[in-house]
Amino acid sequence: MGAVTATSDDRRWMAAALALAERTRGRTAPNPNVGCVLVAAGRVVGRGWTQPGGRPHAEAMALAAAGPAARGGCAYVTLEPCAHVSPRGPACADLLIAAGVARVVIALRDPDPRTDGSGIARLRAAGITVVTDVAGDAARRSMAGFLTRRERSRPSVTLKLATSLDGQIALPDGSSRWITGAAARAHVHLERSRHDAILVGRGTWEADAPRLDVRLPGLSDRSPMRVVLSTRPPPSASAALPSSLIGRGNDPQGARDPLWIDSPAGIATLPADHVFVEGGAATAAAFLRADLVDRLLLYRAPILIGAGKAAIGDFGLGDLAAAHGRWRLLDARDLGTDRLEVYERTPCSPA
Amino acid sequence: MGAVTATSDDRRWMAAALALAERTRGRTAPNPNVGCVLVAAGRVVGRGWTQPGGRPHAEAMALAAAGPAARGGCAYVTLEPCAHVSPRGPACADLLIAAGVARVVIALRDPDPRTDGSGIARLRAAGITVVTDVAGDAARRSMAGFLTRRERSRPSVTLKLATSLDGQIALPDGSSRWITGAAARAHVHLERSRHDAILVGRGTWEADAPRLDVRLPGLSDRSPMRVVLSTRPPPSASAALPSSLIGRGNDPQGARDPLWIDSPAGIATLPADHVFVEGGAATAAAFLRADLVDRLLLYRAPILIGAGKAAIGDFGLGDLAAAHGRWRLLDARDLGTDRLEVYERTPCSPA
């Protein structure tokens, strides 16, 4: 339990903490979605994850669940425990010290300047063994929104495409129901629930009046804010908005008024750290042209369409060499007879 | 060795026979490409495969290699041994009987009316144990050309596409070098070597002057005949041709004069049982419209192109429901950072 380097048990418990962190991905902005597992004598005595809106923090929740059982135990946290007291709660580093935890394993150092190593230092000063950088890559992906906001002053963007084998998203008449099957469409709804905002272009908005909600049992309360990309103003303007938000339009569903932005860069002003871009082809192209796509979800059905509507419009690709090396396959799975591939931006891709 | 039903050893030896059968796939028309393994006392005593042009047959080759060692052994053959004597050689059923083989395991019954069960009957009448339908599906795929010729009076057709993730095969200016990487392109050449004929549309022929040969070490003698699909006559006509072949055009490479056909149905007249359709989009669409594609090879590079040239033109798809259920994923593999997916026509798909 006191090892100063990571063990295989450590990686296993961290994987459990990362799974907890996923529970509120897309609902903690501007806070990171953190997961925490407290282990004492080989068993879990407390579990926590950042609550919707950002508080309580994961460590506070896990410690509250553990009570005195945390003493002498080990805390697995996906992000460095915070070192700053806030009006909304005490510093998690202090809570861990007060609970008598003997060891803390951390996936990722917190880039927030109020912490940024001082949480780790405070734990060590209290005699706690601290191990860092355990499953750091997975933690970066889990908290992509928080980290992209810190590093690039904008949300993390996922572009979703649902295509035929030959890359078409609709027939020439626009019909697209359905290309992918029920399992793939349910997975799209699960991905929606992990994002703060769902974005479509005005064309899709007006043609389909999409609900853009989460229609999964038990997750219907998680429907993200809706955002429309349009270079023209919305049909009617109402509420006061951040500078680059044009306005809120009428909501054809009578709920969740959409936010309107006039360029992909407008996502920086959204109160969202994870944005899910769903289409159509011009919107996908606009985000690619602005180099604002971090992650690509490609749902593919085993069908051919031929002449139809292509998934992505012109995003200004000059030559084939420039297309290579930008995307790396991260995950793939079967969803019924469809297949999901998840790609992420490569490190060598320009930011 | 005398089992009258298949054992796991049988399936293993049949897999070896199927691998041998692949050696001359695309070079035995109008004969099937058959593989044969002779096993005695647990070891291989002879191996054979249909030789280019169709003779000797696989069994004759394997028996010649085994000599007296075949006596009492077991023959694994991917197709029912022939029962008819031809000017080019004796019936393989008779050869197996004469060699004193005790058991014959067969993947597939021969639909040729000159055999069609009579090979099996003759073996059994001679006291040989015969087991049938071992790895029959794999054998059907291996001899797809021969069987399609028998069942549909035309060659088996493979359509190859090499696309970006978004289904594009070129930039708007037509440039397509390179979308896929070296490993995928080498695999295309390997597939070419397994086909009697490579077909492109006139647009591709005139734009790229493609060599359409097999540029792999040790396989350069296997370059298939070249076929051009064109509704207009070729630039110059020369040799006498089957009825629906328009003519032979000038060969920009100075060798292997291409055959020209004026419609996809023209493949029926080619002296080929396996046709490899390589493009472009109009040609792919023509074959899909005629419902003449049996197998789809999809090479995909992890790049996005956006506005470019789509892989497949209009093939007359009326609605999305009609697109479903026609293709089944058979195999997938990584080729460098690219991915190959192999689809086959489903049984429920109209013939």
UniProtKB/TrEMBL annotation, chains A, B:
PROSITE patterns in UniProt: CYT_DCMP_DEAMINASES_2
What residue spans carry the region label Disordered? 225-246
> What cofactor is this protein dependent on?
Zn(2+)
- All residue ranges annotated as the CMP/dCMP-type deaminase domain in the record: 8-131
Single annotated GO MF: 5-amino-6-(5-phosphoribosylamino)uracil reductase activity
What EC number(s) has UniProt assigned to this enzyme?
Answer: 3.5.4.26, 1.1.1.193
Return the InterPro entries for the record. CMP_dCMP_dom (IPR002125), Cytidine_deaminase-like (IPR016193), DHFR-like_dom_sf (IPR024072), Eubact_RibD (IPR004794), RibDG_C (IPR002734), Riboflavin_Biosynth_HTPR (IPR050765)
Indicate whether Hydrolase appears among the record's keywords.
Answer: yes
Q: Write out the catalysed reaction.
A: 2,5-diamino-6-hydroxy-4-(5-phosphoribosylamino)-pyrimidine + H2O + H(+) = 5-amino-6-(5-phospho-D-ribosylamino)uracil + NH4(+); 5-amino-6-(5-phospho-D-ribitylamino)uracil + NADP(+) = 5-amino-6-(5-phospho-D-ribosylamino)uracil + NADPH + H(+)
State the free-text cofactor note: Binds 1 zinc ion.
Which key words are in the record? Answer: Hydrolase, Metal-binding, Multifunctional enzyme, NADP, Oxidoreductase, Riboflavin biosynthesis, Zinc
A Pfam family annotated for this UniProt entry: RibD_C
Q: What does this protein do?
A: Converts 2,5-diamino-6-(ribosylamino)-4(3h)-pyrimidinone 5'-phosphate into 5-amino-6-(ribosylamino)-2,4(1h,3h)-pyrimidinedione 5'-phosphate.
User: What family name appears in the similarity comment?
Assistant: In the C-terminal section; belongs to the HTP reductase family. In the N-terminal section; belongs to the cytidine and deoxycytidylate deaminase family.
This protein is called Riboflavin biosynthesis protein RibD
